[in-house]
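name: query_chain
kind: protein
chains: 1
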Amino acid sequence: MSRFLQVVFLNTLLFFSTLVVAHEVPQDDPEKMVKAIYNNVISELNLKREKLENDPAEVKSFATKYVLPYIDTPKMARYVLGKHWRSASKDQKQAFVDAFTNTLIRSYSQSLLKLKIETVSVATARVEKPGRVTVPSSVTQSDGNKSDVTYRAYLNKKSKKWMLYDVSVEGVSMLLNYRKAYNSDIVKKGLDAVIAEMQTKNASFNGKTV
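structure:
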């Protein structure tokens, strides 16, 4: 797998994982939130590396346990589905959100343990417009490879908490890549067929045979 995909997976996992037990993740400051997520996830990966390596289902458990408080998965799914979201039924929308979340975890799980993070530097959050920011960071692996990683966050008006909803590696948006890929498939096959394919590929994470 290319270094780009490996780095994307790392930051997808960072995007979807954190440990409240180790250090509470503040959601009143997007820069501090990203720093806390990095620190907690790297520490936890080092502690559970063998367990994660031997059981792919543990990767899902690890990510799922800590995802909901800090990212907006439905928002991500809506963006990825694009124009197809408006015409989808309620059941289709929920099925896509669930399948998309599992796909993010499954797609890069095999490369998880190949990554060795040496240092992470998080820069000051940059305001895009009121209530939306980007948080730049730089990730250095033990082999010396460096990658620029930028998180996008918005302030939830109801909860007054910052939520993550996208990550870009070397300027390439994860959500934009998924949106292009799924749009092409939906146009060719239809939404139900695409969801069914996602569910089949994700079956191993639900304790089923693929």
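note: Helices lie at 3-16, 30-54, 56-67, 73-81, 84-87, 90-108, 174-189, 191-201.
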